[in-house]
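G., the chain you wanted modeled:
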Amino acid sequence: MWRGWIPIFIALHMAAFVFLGSIVADYHFVDPEKLSVVRKQESLDVVQVAAQLGRFDLVSLLLTVFGLVAVLGGLFAFGFVRGESSAVARATAEEVAERRLTDLLKEIRASMQEMREFGSRREQPSSKPKVTELEKAEPASENTEFDKG
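Predicted structure as tokens:
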């Protein structure tokens, strides 16, 4: 898919380098008049020379461009890291959920088997009849306080 675009990208980059090279070759980075004025001055302080030649403008422009590139790179890096971490988290969650679900299903099956075994033990008739608490209780006498009322 990308193989067809590679020669196009290479050609565009080469054309951009040739274009930039032709612009830079004829460009005067320092105005010749300003340079002659600065050379005639006795005090050649670096800060004054840079201010008179306009170098601080270039430095501020380069810092601005560098800052913008860094911000854009940071945004793209954030998006990349976020996407990758989401993919890893999703895969890990699916794996853990599947493993936990398998364990829970095993526990449920074991509990259901225990319930079946308990129910089958309970339903088996015993040879001896069970006596309940009510049957053990003595019958109430006929002379109770409630009957007098």
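The chain has a mean pLDDT of 79.

Shout if anything looks off.
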